[in-house]
Specification:
7 helices, mainly alpha
């Protein structure tokens, strides 16, 4: 009995393409979020205060997000970027949970984004697929 350990090239190519499409969608969303924090837009200022954070923290949070995203988008540093984004998103979960935001729509939204971050990386990077294989 033999088992196939590497996916066929066509599956790998298709997975990588889907992974990069998901990565692009994630990047668009996170760039918008990071830039709005960096520019300290009024709505972002209001939301920051509502979450109990100091107003001057917002641009720094935006920089952390954009640097983590940049690392995620570079194939060589993508795993580091995904780990940093996971930490960033974990902070978002805790911050929203702390002020009693709705669980499914707000608190766990960052978890949903994190699942897409790792799912996209899994699809686009064969080394990640080797480390975290899915049983077929």
């Amino acid at each position: 009995m033999t088992t196939q350990t590497t996916p066929p090239a066509t599956d790998s190519h298709t997975a990588a393409r889907v992974g990069w499409i998901l990565t692009a969608l994630i990047a668009i969303f996170l760039i918008f979020d990071g830039v709005s924090k960096l520019l300290n837009v009024q709505q972002v200022q209001d939301a920051t205060v509502e979450l109990g954070l100091r107003d001057e923290m917002t641009p720094v949070i935006g920089i952390v997000l954009l640097v983590s995203l940049a690392l995620y988008l570079i194939p060589r540093t993508a795993v580091l970027g995904a780990v940093l984004l996971t930490g960033y998103l974990g902070g978002a979960v805790l911050t929203n949970w702390r002020v009693d935001k709705p669980l499914l729509s707000t608190v766990l939204f960052a978890v949903y984004v994190g699942i897409f971050v790792w799912g996209a990386l899994y699809l686009r990077d064969p080394k990640v697929r080797q480390v975290m294989p899915i049983v077929r």
